[in-house]
Design goal:
homodimer; 217 residues; mainly alpha; Arc Repressor Mutant, subunit A; Four Helix Bundle (Hemerythrin (Met), subunit A); three-stranded antiparallel β-sheet; 76% helix; 5% strand; DNA-binding
DNA sequence: GTCAATCATCTTGTATACAAGAAAGTTATT
DNA sequence: AATAACTTTCTTGTATACAAGATGATTGAC
């Protein structure tokens, strides 16, 4: 159950941060966390360093590590980059994708549709993930695929929330279909544009969501 | 002179790897390197972990860390991603750049031209770096800027080599000017295309270079 | 009473000691 | 002689001990 290796600690800490267990600017106390995970400071420090590099925390020498929850501006920036990266995937995939993969995407989309009809946001989320994973893969560029996964992973909690917005799931579905259509035609520019817009919309929706929460609170 | 902090060690090791001091698959011995840098294994291990995350070395649990020099395929993939990231910068910069920054780019280009005329590849390289740095900045997206810098840094040694190819510097210059022209017109699509091609060419040139070396050896 | 300086305490950073797993060498058996 | 099992040695991973810098408190001076 409680794996104690340095990399698993990093994963657990990352999950904690991503799910918002810490506020922005919170200092992560080495000894405290070491106790919590029942390890010494050595492996814990290694885990913290990992998080520092991936940008989830900031390491200030001789001061400690502090969680860095992205603010609205940085989030928009990250969504913008995600949009460009996925657009690149689409652009490349348009000329590289084969019929089997296209069929896979259609399948994923069909399952998305089922989820939409069942108003099952969790299910939709999972199938949506699958759709995007295929897109990354079909870029035919393993490095790009990895970069996409990295950022995708980081944006997970925020993407997830905007899905619950009224009418977002059907809209997202329609965008998916437009993407597949462009890929089928082998229209690289159109595929890139569709994907870019699809992801950018996620960022905007999330932004609206945050603004709404602020206004309500 | 010999700074001994963990992050500086990471930098020095990174430089060593990037400049090809180790062959692909070489194991990096902790105690050996610790002696070499005159530190204990603890800070050295932290440095190695950093390199592992940035992908320069692979860490296999209980086995050690091994340098991972990118092969031709991975290099092409990285250049392709670099091209897409920089194209994204250009696309965004086309609508966000201001006159001052445009002037800066023209300046950098002028200095590039001076270097070309002097056949000074090192000087050209530096001014070329500056040109691209401005482009990243003018995307108006700090996160994108950082991502670009990260990958740019990783590709440095390879980009540097292809510059010495016959006729490459004047060609690169011309591409720069086309980029600035597109940005001046505020033509996002054209700017993106020009930049994408400019960077993609670097990858291709490097590929040719490698193929040539292989044939010669 | 406030501000500054010194001192105590706490936290990070590094070294060393120890534990556990992997590789290699040796020996015994077939 | 070849192979398999065991043992030795080496390397990585973790814990603890120690050093050094940073923070905060207390005391003294103005």
């Amino acid at each position: 159950m409680n794996q104690k290796r340095a990399d698993t600690i990093a994963e657990q800490l990352e999950a904690l941060i991503l799910e918002g267990a810490f506020a922005d600017g919170d200092r992560l106390d080495e000894v405290q966390l070491a106790e919590r995970f029942d390890v010494s400071r050595t492996p814990l420090r290694e885990a913290l360093q990992r998080l520092a590099i991936s940008g989830l925390v900031e390491h200030i020498p001789r001061r400690g590590v502090f969680v860095r929850q992205p603010g609205p501006v940085e989030l928009m920036e990250m969504f913008e980059v995600m949009a460009e990266l996925e657009a690149a995937c689409a652009r490349l995939a348009a000329t590289r994708i084969n019929d089997d993969a296209l069929e896979e995407m259609r399948e994923a989309n069909a399952k998305c549709l089922t989820a939409v009809e069942a108003r099952d946001a969790d299910r939709y989320y999972i199938e949506n993930e699958r759709f995007h994973a295929i897109l990354y893969r079909q870029s035919g560029n393993g490095f790009l695929e990895e970069e996409c996964r990295r950022l995708h992973r980081r944006l997970t909690p925020f993407r997830r929330r905007q899905l619950h917005l009224r009418g977002r799931m059907p809209q997202s579905m329609a965008e998916h279909e437009a993407i597949v259509a462009a890929l089928e035609r082998g229209d690289a520019a159109a595929a890139a544009d569709e994907v870019r817009r699809h992801v950018a919309v996620q960022g905007e929706k999330f932004h609206h969501l945050m603004a709404g929460l602020k206004a309500a609170g």
